[in-house]
Amino acid sequence: MLLAYHSRRLRESSIHSFSKQYLQHLAKSVSAVRSGLEASIADPEENAVHVKNAKIVVESRDDTKLQVRVDLEGEDTRLVFEKVLTNLARAAPPVPGFRRQKGGKTSKVPKDFLLQMLGEERVTNFVIQEIVSSTLADYTKKENLTVKGNKINTIQTAEELRSSFVPGKEFGFSATLELEILTTETSSQ
């Protein structure tokens, strides 16, 4: 009973106790808007997670818009999930009964307990944010694309993405990127 009380208090207080830097990164990465998920593409080096084996296919393209399909293998979703869970746990307040090691890592807290403490839906939201933001940031850098306002939109809603995500299983989404048209000014003499 005491453990349940502390778990509930930690879950409630952890909202306010995450490390400022990690939450700022996530806040500028993604937010739910209208029908799809809107994400900001940050510098790929700033991403907390890197997905190496994402398969990205261009579905349609014109001068101002690019629609892509991104698919990840189960192993990649599992790795991203574990990395995000570890980062969130590191930023959360200490867990009663578990000591913190140097560097802020809480050792040997069962992942199921961490997931319950932090909230499965919340962790899943962070994982999806990281996947969308990191895969498309890497893609735009690799293809040398400039996205208008560094904003992208998924075709699927946040709820659809959340319901289709299971760690260790394949995951995919479609997104639209509004491209900036780089014009070169020519001077007439």
From TrEMBL:
Pfam families documented for this protein: Trigger_N
Highest rank taxon of the organism: Eukaryota
Domain Trigger factor ribosome-binding bacterial: 55-179
InterPro entries named among the record's database cross-references: Trig_fac, Trigger_fac_ribosome-bd_bac, Trigger_fac_ribosome-bd_sf
Protein name: Uncharacterized protein isoform X10
